[in-house]
Amino acid sequence: MAPWGRYFLFGVTVNMRECTYDPSEMYLHYEKFVYGGASPQMITFSNFGPTTQNYIYPDLLIGKGNSRIIGNRVMLDYGYNVNVAALTLTLIDAFDEYVPVAEKYIQVNSGMRVRGINRFNFFVKLGYLF
Predict the structure, then answer these.
(1) Which domain holds residue 98?
(2) Residues 102-124: pLDDT tens digits?
(3) Is residue 103 domain-resident?
(4) Mean pLDDT of 34-55
(5) Which residue of 28, 37, 42, 119 has the fewest C-beta atoms within 10 A of its own C-beta?
């Protein structure tokens, strides 16, 4: 029987994303309510700034895992990890009443998606040792 090991993860992660869009295909319809009883205005925009945008933000990763080697050849590794900033911003993402601004639309929405993926992850890895 090969070794079984528990481990603790702690470190800084750097999340990088590149967003691209085609202005002829991507557009946003937004209904803006006007105070004073007037009917709402429909706003449409398709210019979200440069067609390629890059963003970088750091986060703190914390997690636990277990590793086992079976038959001196097969490695099984499983555990979970949490990105602290992504998890902390969950409430802001859930209850934020974001009013779309064309220049910030891609930055804000892609950031929410990346944080949503990184909040909590469970992983199972299977490997073969040569």
Answers:
(1) 4-17+57-128
(2) 888 889 888 888 988 989 999 99
(3) yes
(4) 83
(5) 37
